[in-house]
Amino acid sequence: MKKVVIIGDSTHNTLSAVRSFGEGGIDQTLLLVCHEDNCFVRYSKYLKHGNLYVLNELDACLPVLEQLASEVGQLLMTTFDAAAEWVDQREQLLSQWFLTPCRGKQIGRLFNKEAQCELAKSCGLTVPYSVVYHRGDALPADLPYPVITKPLVSSEGEKSDIHICQTAGELLEALALESRSEYLIIQEFIQKEFEIDAVGVSTDEVVVMGGAIHKYRHWPRLVGAGAFGLFDCMERFNVDTEAVSRFIRKAGYHGPFSVEFLHTKEGKNYFMEVNFRNEGLAYASTCAGVNLHALYADSTKRINWDKFRPTYMMNYSIDLLYVKEGDITLGHWLKDFLKTRCFINVCLTDLGPTLAYYKHKISKKNESIGMYSVPADRWY
Fold first, then answer.
1. DSSP characters for 318-348?
2. What's the pLDDT tens digit per position in 108-147?
C-alpha cells in the first residue's frame, strides 16, 4: 500500500478523491490550494489527522512537498487542471521525491485539446472536425456549422468560453465576448443523444475503466456540468476501451482520469477530451462498488466486478434548477432524487463539509438578511 499526496482545490473534484481514498483505507495528505474554502473540503472526516495543508497558491506547494518527500514511494496526484500542469512542468524534480503522474516524463502538449484530438484519432477513436482559432484572425471558410467553441487549454479558459453557434454570424458574436482565452478550438457540433463521462485509472501495470456516467441533465443546459445521470458499466456504451487504453499509455499518464464522449442515436461515440486529473464524478465509481482510487494506491485491492451496481448520481443543488425553470415537475425530480445513491454535493458518511456549508450560510444570513456569500446553486 502506498500513501497518496493530493494537490487539490476547493471543489468536488477534491472531495471525491479524499472520500474514495478514505473509504479505501488509504493514507493521504491533501495540499488544499485556495484563497477561500468555498466547498468546505477541510471539514471532511478523512482530513482530521494532521494530513491537511491549506495554501494560497500553487507555488507554495513546493516547500511542503519537499518536506513530505522524506518518505519513499508516495503517489502524487492532482484534482484541477492548473495543478496538473504545474506538476507536469516540474516532473523531473518531483519524480525524485514521489511517484508522479508521468514518472519523470511529461504530458506537455496533451493539455492542448488539438493535440489530444490528434492522438485520439491515431489511437482509433472517432473525433469531430476541429480547428484551432486565434482571436483576431479571420474565420476559416469551411467550418461545418453548427460548431462549438472551447478554450484550447482548459486551465486558460472558463465555461463562458463555450458557445454553440449555428451560423458564422453567431460565431462572430460569441468571439466578440470578453474572455481570457487567446486560443480556442472550434469544433463540429455533434447532435448528441447524450454525453458520456467515462472514469478510469492508470496504474503501472494496466489501465482500468470503472464505468461511465450517462448524463441525463446538465447545468447550464447542453454545455454545463452533469447534474443527474446514471453510472453504468462500460459495455453499456460501446466505448472502445482498448483505444482509450492506448491513448493513456501513449500519453504516459498514471492516476485517476476521465474521458468525455458524445453518444449519437446511431451509436457512435465522438471523443471530446481527456482530463489528466481526478474529477468530482469519479466518486460515482466508488459508490457503484468500484473504488479506482484504492486500486491505484494498493494493487492488492482487486476489484470484485460481481459487486458492481448501476448507480444514479446527482448534484441536487444545480439539478433543482430544472424544477425552478419549469423543465420538469417537482414530482418528477423527487422520483429521481429518491433513486439516487451518489450525491456529488453531499455524502451521508462524510457530512462535515455539508454541515459546515449550511452553518456558514445561516451565519451569513443572520449577519445580513437577504445576502449570501456562497451561491446555493454552486456547491450545496
1. HHTHHHHTTSS-HHHHHHHHHHEEEETT--T
2. 999 999 999 999 999 999 999 999 999 888 898 889 999 9
On whether the CB atoms of residues 126 and 270 are closer than 8 A, the answer is yes
Closest CA to 254 of 301, 292, 218: 292
**What is the pLDDT, as a whole number, of residue 377?**
42
Asked whether 361 and 374 are in contact (CB, 8 A), the reply is: yes
Residues of the chain predicted below pLDDT 70 = 367-380
In a domain, 181, yes or no: yes
pLDDT at 111: 95
How far, CA to CA in Å, does 116 sit from each of 78, 112, 119, 254, 314?
19, 6, 5, 16, 29
Cis, bond preceding 256 (omega within 30 deg of 0)? no
Residue type (1 letter), 374: V
On the question of a cis peptide bond just before residue 220, with omega within 30 degrees of 0, the verdict is yes
Q: Are 21 and 46 in contact (CB under 8 A)?
A: yes
Q: What crossing angle do the helices spanning 241-251 and 113-122 adopt, rounded to 10°? A: 120
Instruction: Tell me the pTM.
Output: 0.88
248 vs 260: CA distance, rounded Å: 14
Length of the chain, please?
380
- CATH code where residue 95 lies: 3.40.50.20
332 in the same domain as 212: yes
**217 and 319, same domain (yes or no):** yes
Is residue 61 a contact partner of residue 33, using CB atoms and an 8 Å limit? yes
For the beta carbon of residue 338, count every other beta carbon within 10 angstroms: 8
Q: Where are the beta strands (DSSP E) in the chain?
A: 4-8, 28-33, 52-55, 75-78, 130-134, 147-151, 163-165, 183-188, 194-202, 207-219, 225-232, 255-263, 269-275, 311-314, 340-343
Exposed, middle or buried: residue 346 (CB in 10 Å: 0-12, 13-18, 19+)? middle
Is 208 found in the same domain as 324? yes
Domain housing 32 = 4-110
Count H helices, E strands: the chain?
13, 15
